[in-house]
Amino acid sequence: MKIFLSWSGQRSKEVAEALRDWLPYVLHSVSPFMSSFHIETGQDFFKVLRSELKESNFGILCLTKDNIRSPWVLFESGALAKVLENSALCPYLIDMVPEDLPGPLKFFQAASADEKGTRDLVRSLNAASDLVRLSDPHLHKSFDRWWPDLKPKLESKAQPLGPAVDSQTFHLINVKTSTYLRASGLPHKNGEPLELSVSGDEREIWRFHPVEKKYYAIASGYTEQCVDVEGNSTAERAKVHQWQFQNGENQKWCLLLQPDGSYKLRVKHSRYFLSVTDEGIKQMPPVDSRSQKWWLTPIFNY
To answer: Same domain, yes or no, for 10 and 115?
Structure first.
C-alpha cells in the first residue's frame, strides 16, 4: 500500500522522515513516499509528484502550527483529497490540537504525534490495506515493539518559524535595478539561489516573521525557505541564498529606513547588507549605493 507523506518546513520534514523509516517495520505491507527522498536529481519534480499523488492509497499530512496554511501543504492535501476517500487522509498533528486546524483540513480525522495518536494512525493504515492486514493482537505487539524507536524522533528540536498568518508579506524591489527579489529553485531544498526577476509570480512574495526585537526571518511562501548568509560567513561578498529556518544570526534581518522611503536590510551576525552585485545576491559592507536599497511593497490577502 502506497502512503504519501506530505510535509512543509523543517519540523514537519523531520517527522515525515521518521515515519518514512519507521512505518515499514510496524506494517510490512506499506510503502511510504516522501518527495525529498524519492525524487532524484534530474527527474521532473512535478511530474513525479503528480504521479505519486495519483497512485497513493493513503495520505499523511505532517502538520505544525508553522505550516497549516502553507500553500504547499494545501496543494498536496487538496490533490490527495481528490483521489482518496476522506478516511484515507490523516492530518498528523505535531505541536497542535484538532481545534487548531483550518478548513478544509478540520474535516478529516486527525491523529496526534504521540503514542495514542500514532497507534490510532497505524490502526487506520492496517484497516485500509487491501493486501495483508494484521490481527489486532499482532498489530499491537508490532506497535509496542517499534514505538520506542519512533518516540524520540517525534521530539523535534527544530526551531519553529511561526504561522504564516502572523507574518507580514511583501515584494522586495531593488532600487537600482527595479527588479524583484525572487526565490529560485525547488520547494523545501536547502541552498537554492536567490535571483532578480520581474515575472510577477508567487516566487517574488516574501513573508517577514518577527523572530526577536527589531529582527525578522524573511521566508519565501513558495520554497518555505529563508534568506540566509551561506555558511554563517562574515566575509565580504559572501553568498546569500535560501535555507531552512534554524534561528541562526545569519537568518535575522533588521530593516533600516532610508530618507527616500526605501529600506536597507542588515543581517545580524555580520552587520552587512543584502546587496545586488554583478555576481548575484551577496552580503556587503555599507556603501552609499542604490544596490543596497529595497522598496517594500505590501501584499494583502495572501
So the answer is: yes
Residue 158's CB is within 10 A of a number of other CB atoms, namely 18
pLDDT classification of 10: cutoffs 50, 70, 90: confident
Residues 112 and 62 in one domain: yes
Three-state secondary-structure class, residue 167: coil
Same domain, 229 and 277: yes
Query: Which of left, alpha, beta for 79 (phi over 0: left; psi -120 to 50: alpha)?
Result: alpha
Domain assignment of residue 212, given as a range: 164-298
Query: Using alpha carbons only, how large is the chain's radius of gyration in Å?
Result: 21
Q: Are 172 and 211 in contact (CB under 8 A)?
A: no
Helix 71-83 / helix 45-55 crossing angle, nearest 10 deg:
40
Residues 106 and 214 in one domain: no
Taking only the tens place, the pLDDT of each residue in 94-143 is 988 888 887 777 888 899 999 999 999 999 999 888 777 899 999 999 99
CB 125 within 8 A of CB 1: yes
Asked if 174 contacts 79 with a C-beta cutoff of 8 angstroms, the reply is no
62 close to 12: Cβ distance less than 8 angstroms: yes
Q: How many other C-beta atoms are found inside a 10 Å radius of the C-beta of residue 54?
A: 12
